[in-house]
Automatic annotation (TrEMBL):
<dbReference type="InterPro" id="IPR036817">
    <property type="entry name" value="Transthyretin/HIU_hydrolase_sf"/>
</dbReference>
<protein>
    <recommendedName>
        <fullName>5-hydroxyisourate hydrolase</fullName>
        <ecNumber>3.5.2.17</ecNumber>
    </recommendedName>
</protein>
<dbReference type="GO" id="GO:0033971">
    <property type="term" value="F:hydroxyisourate hydrolase activity"/>
</dbReference>
<dbReference type="InterPro" id="IPR000895">
    <property type="entry name" value="Transthyretin/HIU_hydrolase"/>
</dbReference>
<dbReference type="InterPro" id="IPR014306">
    <property type="entry name" value="Hydroxyisourate_hydrolase"/>
</dbReference>
<keyword id="KW-0659">Purine metabolism</keyword>
<feature type="binding site">
    <location>
        <position position="113"/>
    </location>
    <ligand>
        <name>substrate</name>
    </ligand>
</feature>
<dbReference type="InterPro" id="IPR023418">
    <property type="entry name" value="Thyroxine_BS"/>
</dbReference>
<comment type="subunit">
    <text>Homotetramer.</text>
</comment>
<dbReference type="InterPro" id="IPR023416">
    <property type="entry name" value="Transthyretin/HIU_hydrolase_d"/>
</dbReference>
<comment type="similarity">
    <text>Belongs to the transthyretin family. 5-hydroxyisourate hydrolase subfamily.</text>
</comment>
<comment type="function">
    <text>Catalyzes the hydrolysis of 5-hydroxyisourate (HIU) to 2-oxo-4-hydroxy-4-carboxy-5-ureidoimidazoline (OHCU).</text>
</comment>
<feature type="binding site">
    <location>
        <position position="6"/>
    </location>
    <ligand>
        <name>substrate</name>
    </ligand>
</feature>
<feature type="binding site">
    <location>
        <position position="44"/>
    </location>
    <ligand>
        <name>substrate</name>
    </ligand>
</feature>
<dbReference type="GO" id="GO:0006144">
    <property type="term" value="P:purine nucleobase metabolic process"/>
</dbReference>
<keyword id="KW-0378">Hydrolase</keyword>
<dbReference type="InterPro" id="IPR023419">
    <property type="entry name" value="Transthyretin_CS"/>
</dbReference>
């Protein structure tokens, strides 16, 4: 089933196209970079982050460059800005299920949930 993400820009009311994201595996406080990618025009990665054969039970981290995205969109952010990078740590317990990690974000707030 695999792992995927999707980011919606709640300030502008659409996908967060062009946002930079990094995926890590984690073990305790240690994090290992798996890949960096840029969200496409629909606010998603072009391919699953892990497909159903390569996703493993364990802990992961997605880091979203929120400030960089909003600056690139021409949003004037205060210095220092309220949100810089949003880091989401989550666990995968069942590799036979799909793990979808959406992010709803503005320069001042974010929310997430386990999607389908």
């Amino acid at each position: 089933m695999g792992l995927s993400t999707h980011v919606l820009d709640t300030m502008h009311g659409g996908p967060a196209a062009g946002m930079e994201v990094a995926l890590y595996t984690t073990q305790g406080d240690a994090a290992t970079l798996v890949k960096r990618f840029t969200l496409n025009s629909d606010g998603r990665s072009d391919a699953p982050l892990y497909d159903n054969h390569s996703l493993e039970v364990g802990t992961y981290r997605l880091v979203f460059d929120v400030a960089g995205y909003f600056r690139a969109r021409g949003v004037k952010l205060p210095e220092p800005n309220f949100l810089n990078k949003v880091s989401l740590d989550f666990g995968v317990a069942h590799t036979d299920q799909h793990y979808h990690v959406p992010l709803l974000v503005s320069p001042w707030s974010y929310s997430t949930y386990r999607g389908s």
